Amino acid sequence: MASVVIVGGGIAGLVVARDLVLGGMTVTLLEASDHLGGKVARHTVAGIELDAGAESFATRRGTVAELARQLGLESAIVPPSPDGAWLQTVAGSAFPLPKTGILGIPGTPMASDVIEVIGFWAALRAQLDELMLGFVGAKEKSLGRLVRRRMGDAVLERLVAPVTLGIHSKHPDDLDVDVVAPGLRTALLRTGSLSHAVRQLREAAPAGSAVAGISGGMFELVEALRRDLDRFGVTVRLSTPVTSVDSSGATVADGERFDADHVVLATSLGRSEQASIVLATLVVDAPELDSAPRGTGVLVAAGTPGIRAKALTHATAKWRWLADNVGASRHVLRLSYNQAPVDGLRELAIEDARQLLGVPLNAASIIGFDRVEWAAPAAAPDVVSGVTAVGEGVSGTGLAAVVRHARNEAERLLKDIDG
Ligand SMILES: Cc1cc2nc3c(=O)[nH]c(=O)nc-3n(C[C@H](O)[C@H](O)[C@H](O)COP(=O)(O)OP(=O)(O)OC[C@H]3O[C@@H](n4cnc5c(N)ncnc54)[C@H](O)[C@@H]3O)c2cc1C
Question: What is the set of domains in the chain, with CATH numbers?
Answer without folding.
Answer: 3-40+219-271+378-418 (3.50.50.60), 98-204 (1.10.3110.10), 276-375 (3.90.660.20)
